[in-house]
Amino acid sequence: MVRQNKKSVRYGKKSPALSNHMNDHDATENGLLPRTDLELVREARHGDMDAFHGLVDRYASYLYGLAVSLIGNAADAEDAVQETLTGAFRGLRSFRQDASVKTWLTRILVRQAAAHHRRRGFRIVARPIDGAADPAGLAETAGADAQMDVREAIDALPPDYREVIVLREMQGMSYEQIAQALAIPRGTVESRLFRARGQLQELLKAYLA
Predict the structure, then answer these.
(1) Could you give all domains of the chain from N- to C-terminal order, each with its CATH number?
(2) Model pLDDT for residues 40-53, shown as the tens digit of each residue
């Protein structure tokens, strides 16, 4: 089981405990190129903790940013990332390589976010994020001052719709990648996105009225 001190692991920024030496180890151990994700997974399966820490170093910041977008609370997002990494470590041997390691980790995190919403109940959480992406160009169509309203509107979406909007518009994932991450058909991804964008437009009208 992976046990990491939350005080030393800061997912929003690279932690010295997990980051500073990991890149050096990853890049220089073989004297060649950094190991690929699949190489790190294979080595971690055989008990190489440095290999697993290499995956943590590579994806912790991405997972944290995604968790904040899906959950809306920094502390709960950090817990979700911790549970995701623990779940990934436990599931190393069950990773079938039918998707990329990034998509696999995303799938685990999305499940953690969904579990969070089930435990807490769906809530609207308003949160400013500097430099946030503009899903579907909605802020531009609504006006330059609408960026925060766009983010609030995303937070007001039901979790299923928020997931697809965040993965598509903020993370830039393809329909196929989203389908793999959410374990749903591509057609379902497309229909959820269509409905989510429609709801965003309606929410923005209410915010800006």
Answers:
(1) 1-123 (1.10.1740.10), 133-209 (1.10.10.10)
(2) 999 999 999 999 99
